Amino acid sequence: FTDFLLDQGATRFLVLDGSLTPRQAGRTVQRLLEIETYRLLALLALPVAREIGAWLHDAEEELATMVDHIGEASSPADESRVLGELTRLAAKVEHSLARTNFRFAAARAYHELVMQRIGELRETRVSGCPTFHEIMQRRLLPAMQTCKAMAGRQDELSDRLARTSQLLRTRVDVEVERQNQELLTQMNRRAHLQLRLQETVEGLSVVAITYYASQLVHYLAKGGAHLLPQISPELATATSIPLIAACAMLGIRRLRRRLQQREDAAH
Predict the structure, then answer these.
(1) How far from 165 is each of 63, 82, 95, 158, CA to CA, in Å?
(2) How far apart are CA 88 and CA 59, in angstroms?
(3) pLDDT digits (tens, 9 = 90+) for 14-23
(4) d(CA 265, CA 259)
């Protein structure tokens, strides 16, 4: 018999010895001591659960506000600010998990030991008195359910933070992809303009090569005038200009095609 009330720092039990052997009496007393010890150890988690209960409510409200801010964010600065707040809240949740997980896990283990020791007593009902099992179901189980609920809320909050962070990161990635697409479009436009400029430069190169090569032909024609007096230097120069221009253009195109083939082979 016991009332589970503390009297001068101890709980009193009355064991009626109805022809118990010394071994049976010892096992019975040991189980009673273990039941009370493990019950008190399990209840150590209840103040922790009450402490984090109010904090969890505030953290859940803060997370809901952050989700609203994600939907209202209209610039990278807003998204960066919300991401910083999410990181700060996630750090708090992880700190709380690290601080309380051991206590809640220990409470579950001690509660299982209490119920196991009660089962080993093989109780039978005495008229007018509740059994140990009924007392634990009415007084200890609600405390353990409270601890279990707080632990579950912490885990759920951590998962929600992870999903929200992933959502924000996805939104940031989409924005980065859009910016990259715009940058690639601009680079493509610049490459197209550069190609046009290069073609213009190639045309000017053909003109320059033709001019200098025709001057060389003109000087050669002057120098060889005594060998072929019937051909004037001006006629030779005029005749060579189309040939020189065609050769220069074909040479430049061939060189460009060869460079393009090397670049394609490298990729």
Answers:
(1) 11, 9, 18, 11
(2) 11
(3) 888 888 888 9
(4) 10
pLDDT digits (tens, 9 = 90+) for 161-180: 888 888 878 777 777 788 88
Q: Which of 170, 188, 206 is the last residue of a domain?
A: 188
Q: Based on the fold, state whether residues 219 and 175 are members of the same structural domain.
A: no
> Closest Cα partner for 118 from 55, 48, 188, 34?
34
Q: Same domain for 50 and 166?
A: yes
Domain boundary among 138, 161, 188: 188
For residues 5 and 15, give the distance between their C-alpha atoms in angstroms, rounded to a whole number: 16
Q: Check: CB of residue 108 under 8 Å from CB of residue 149.
A: no
Q: What share of the chain is helix, strand, coil (3-state, %, to 5)?
A: 85, 5, 10
Domain range for 109? 2-188
pTM above 0.85, yes or no: no
DSSP symbol at 126: B
Q: Find out whether 95 and 23 touch, Cβ atoms under 8 Å.
A: no
